[in-house]
């Protein structure tokens, strides 16, 4: 797309499901806008997922604005190609006014004007309001200790992992047991690879319990409607690691203890490397016990809900460990273990350095209430627990997009009625920008 103008009522930075959802809502309200995407629309689902990737939430939760899942398996789990086909239909349906392959380098206030300047690799744009919908997973986390690994060790981040054949022959060390780490470890394990897994304190949950998917029970319990302001942890829930579970082969639990029985080697938190020797904290037992405690706790809450509402359902159960470590192993020799590759699965960090506005906390995270910041006309969308559990997922972004669209429309109408706002001056000249983007 070649923009016909350089000024818009709204500029949306990011063309994933969040940015496109908001575009849909703004189009319904007749609000002119531009979506700027540095790659291609919804690219991350094509480029940052491994080959066997599938949803961990059932298909019925895929509910983007005007584009819900309509296939024949609402309680199944779409695989990568099916997800991308579904998203391609959403892109086609929205027909967003989008500029692809363009990097936003800086967002700032345009002097005394009551609008924003957006400097990009394709020139300068201005907007009355800006929505940052680039997500919160910008910088793959790889610890500095990675530099100390021998050059012969092949290293990938989870965003780069595709399949077991991508890795050289030999054992694989997977670092991290959140959703990506647990599923990648399983992928390698099922392919017959020798896997060493460095665990953390990630929680887990059951796939099915008492006759239904646990997600179905939690939906019945209105968990997914709980706003972050009512969560027991408040904003602290945003720091939580996602529970590990899988939708693979129709959905099942991921039980690291069972993997251990089948030959996977489990260790505690990895802390360093001394020569040829990897070092770990002696906390494997605690990590496994913590995951099981969360697993049983979620099931217990379902038990209480069933009892309180007189629901007929199969009987409940409590998970009993099928394996436990005989001792805490704190060292592992790379040479003796035969490890030839490492997959880092310890997450991402946000990078909003290109947004020049006083809306960030000490960790560089935006401070907001349901995506609305303390600076008028600047919003965030698509972040985990922006408002509810589903805010960063297919299930909840529609609600957030509608809310922001209504807020944007209110501000737009107020500005139109005010004679005090200073109009933007659209400039085609581009000033040097200082930061890189999203």
Automatic annotation (TrEMBL):
InterPro entries: Auxin_biosynth/cation_transpt, CHP04046_FMN-dependent, FAD/NAD-bd_sf. Keywords: Oxidoreductase. It holds the Pfam family Pyr_redox_3. Gene3D superfamilies: FAD/NAD(P)-binding domain (3.50.50.60). NCBIfam families: MSMEG_0569_nitr (TIGR04046). This is Flavoprotein involved in K+ transport. It comes from Variovorax ginsengisoli.
């Amino acid at each position: 797309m070649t923009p016909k103008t350089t000024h818009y009522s709204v500029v949306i930075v990011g063309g994933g499901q969040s940015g496109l959802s908001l575009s849909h809502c703004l189009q319904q309200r007749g609000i002119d806008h531009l979506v700027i995407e540095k790659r291609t629309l919804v690219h991350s689902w094509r480029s940052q997922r491994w080959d066997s990737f599938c949803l961990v939430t059932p298909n019925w939760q895929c509910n983007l604005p005007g584009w819900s899942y309509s296939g024949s398996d609402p309680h199944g789990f779409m695989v990568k190609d099916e997800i991308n086909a579904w998203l391609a239909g959403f892109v086609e349906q929205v027909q967003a006014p989008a500029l692809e392959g363009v990097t936003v380098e800086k967002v700032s206030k345009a002097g005394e004007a009551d609008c924003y300047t957006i400097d990009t690799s394709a020139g300068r744009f201005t907007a009355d309001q800006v929505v940052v919908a680039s997500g919160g997973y910008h910088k793959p986390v790889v610890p500095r200790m990675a530099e100390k690994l021998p050059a012969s060790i092949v290293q990938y981040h989870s965003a780069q992992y595709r399949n077991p054949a991508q890795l050289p022959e030999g054992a694989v060390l997977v670092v991290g047991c959140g959703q990506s780490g647990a599923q990648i470890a399983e992928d390698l394990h099922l392919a017959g690879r020798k896997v060493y897994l460095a665990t953390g304190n990630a929680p887990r949950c059951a796939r099915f319990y008492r006759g239904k998917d646990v997600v179905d029970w939690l939906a019945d319990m209105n968990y997914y409607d709980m706003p972050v302001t009512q969560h027991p942890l408040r904003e602290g829930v945003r720091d939580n690691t996602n529970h590990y579970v899988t939708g693979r082969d129709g959905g099942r639990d991921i039980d690291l203890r069972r993997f251990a029985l089948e030959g996977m080697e489990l260790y505690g938190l990895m802390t360093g490397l001394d020569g040829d020797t990897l070092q770990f904290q002696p906390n494997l037992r605690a990590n496994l016990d913590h995951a099981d405690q969360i697993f049983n706790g979620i099931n217990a809450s379902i038990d209480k809900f069933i009892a309180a509402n007189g629901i007929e359902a199969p009987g409940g159960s409590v998970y009993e460990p099928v394996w436990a470590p005989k001792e805490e192993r704190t060292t592992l020799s790379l040479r003796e273990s035969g490890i030839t590759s490492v997959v880092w699965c310890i997450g991402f960090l946000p990078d909003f350095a290109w947004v020049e506005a006083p809306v960030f906390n000490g960790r560089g995270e935006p401070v907001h209430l349901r995506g609305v910041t303390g600076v008028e006309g600047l919003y965030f969308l698509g972040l985990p627990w922006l408002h509810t559990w589903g805010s960063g997922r297919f299930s909840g972004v529609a609600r957030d997009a509608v809310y922001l669209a209504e807020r944007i429309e209110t501000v737009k109408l107020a500005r139109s009625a005010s004679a005090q706002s200073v109009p933007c001056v659209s400039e085609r000249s581009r000033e040097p920008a200082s930061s890189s983007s999203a």
